Design the sequence.
């Protein structure tokens, strides 16, 4: 489902999700958005006040980042991260973990 954010993103941002209503934004790779059983990777560091958004990517994206040595334009292009609400993030986690 498409989710919309009506203002520029800040640590205090919320978005309107057609499924979960008003929720904090998170981001996932394009593969997790509709995938199932793909693995679910998150950063080792916990969110901070300056970077409070939940983040996740699939096993293929993890392998790509390792192959190129880091998260960079190539690996991020492969992942094609997209914003989702925290509710959709948790749904993706359950489908892919």
Sequence:
């Amino acid at each position: 489902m498409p989710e919309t954010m009506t203002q520029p993103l800040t640590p205090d941002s919320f978005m309107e999700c057609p499924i979960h209503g008003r929720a904090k934004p998170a981001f996932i790779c394009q593969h997790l958005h509709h995938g199932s059983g793909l693995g679910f990777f998150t950063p080792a560091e916990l969110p901070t006040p300056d970077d409070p958004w939940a983040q996740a990517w699939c096993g293929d994206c993890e392998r790509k980042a390792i192959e190129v040595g880091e998260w960079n334009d190539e690996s991020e292009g492969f992942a094609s991260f997209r914003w989702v609400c925290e509710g959709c993030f948790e749904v993706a986690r359950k489908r892919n973990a």
The first strand starts at residue 15 and ends at 17. Confidence is low (pLDDT under 50) at residues 1-5. Residues 15-43+53-96 form one domain. Helices lie at 30-34, 59-68, 73-79, 86-96.
